[in-house]
Design brief:
The chain is α/β, with parallel strands linked by helices and 255 residues long. It is 31% helix and 24% strand.
Length: 255
């Protein structure tokens, strides 16, 4: 795979369109004939049972896998034509585990960012609702986080990861439900940080808790590798039986 070959990625953010996309892994189809559009400045959430293809969608968009059939378009071009390094630079990623590098908080927030001033660093921490807890630590920004961030709580690690994504300022955000492993207080803080992060971005969320994606512009439901429904939270609650069942059991179930 050649990172330096391919066309330049357009400067203006384009829609991402799946057209009859199927993907087969170990001879088993994970996705079948999927068609949908991801729009700039909109938040789209994906819901399915565990193993239903949500994570595969992310891998296909980022070009870690190639589709088995069909195509993924960025604007009117197949994403395969673009320079791979430029293509991946479009994406910021926050996962539910928020793994950190061994090193200091400063090094973790600045990872992947060039020419950042101290004011920009502090602004990112404040926007991520991380500044106060970082400054309360004895060594502040120079606090060692330990291997994988073991010295920080789950909510603290998430907010550091969000501060990093704010500094990187990628136009497309991939969120692997960043609050699913947090207690209620930490979840509230991270949700506020995510609202800042996702402003004026194309945001794509893998949803584990339905309560965190009620604000999404579009929600797609996958069943048996295909799209079985899409709409807003309100419309799906009225019209989609599976979504309604998930909502009714969401307090005791993650997906």
């Amino acid at each position: 795979m050649h990172l330096k070959r391919g066309q330049a990625v357009p400067n203006v953010l384009q829609p991402i369109r799946f057209e009859n996309v199927s993907f087969k892994y170990n001879q088993k189809y994970v996705l079948q004939n999927m068609s949908f559009t991801l729009e700039p400045n909109k938040t789209t959430a994906f819901i399915s049972q565990s193993g239903g293809g949500k994570t595969t969608i992310f891998s296909l968009i980022e070009r870690f896998y190639d589709v088995t059939s069909g195509k993924i378009l960025y604007g009117n071009q197949n994403i395969q034509v673009y320079n791979l390094q430029e293509w991946r630079n479009l994406f910021g990623y926050v996962s539910q585990n928020a793994p950190l590098l061994t090193g200091t908080i400063r090094e973790n927030v600045l990872y992947g960012t060039k020419n950042c001033t101290e004011k920009e660093l502090e602004a990112a921490l404040k926007a991520a609702y991380a500044y106060d807890f970082v400054m309360s630590l004895e060594d502040g920004l120079d606090t060692e986080v330990g291997e994988g961030g073991i010295k920080l709580s789950g909510g603290q690690k998430q907010r550091i990861a969000i501060a990093r994504a704010i500094l990187q300022n990628a136009p497309i955000l991939l969120l692997d439900e960043a609050t699913s492993n947090l207690d209620n207080e930490s979840e509230r803080e991270v949700q506020k940080a995510l609202q800042t992060l996702t402003k004026n971005k194309m945001t794509i969320i893998i949803a584990h808790r339905l309560s965190t994606i009620t604000h999404a512009d579009h929600i797609f439901i996958f069943e048996n590798g295909s799209v079985s429904g899409y709409g807003t939270h309100a419309s799906l609650l009225k019209e989609h039986t599976y979504y309604k069942q998930l909502w009714q059991t969401m307090d005791v179930q993650t997906i």
